[in-house]
UniProtKB/TrEMBL annotation:
Lineage: Eukaryota, Metazoa, Chordata, Craniata, Vertebrata
Signal peptide: none
Superkingdom of origin organism: Eukaryota
Gene3D superfamilies on file: 3.30.420.40
Organism of derivation: Ovis ammon polii
Name of protein: Beta-actin
InterPro entries named in the record: Actin (IPR004000), ATPase_NBD (IPR043129)
């Protein structure tokens, strides 16, 4: 909870699970329950785990590598 107060609402409402460890059964429900317990009661919590979340990190990295702005670094 050390992030800027102005962006907390957006962060709570836009959580994306990615990577192999997010494949554990029930992880989305567990994350939802634990974060809801920590967040203010008025906060909307949204956690997304796409069907490809096992590979999301790799897919994101490959897209980033294709960007001309990244290639100039």
């Amino acid at each position: 909870m050390k992030c800027d107060v102005d962006i907390r609402k957006d962060l709570y409402a836009n959580m994306v699970l990615s990577g192999g460890t997010t494949m554990y059964p029930g992880i989305v429900d567990r994350m939802q329950k634990e974060i809801t317990a920590l967040a203010p009661s008025t906060m909307k919590i949204k956690i997304i785990a796409s069907p490809e979340h096992k590979y999301s990190v790799w897919i994101g990295g490959s897209i980033l590598a294709l960007l001309s702005s990244f290639q100039q670094m």
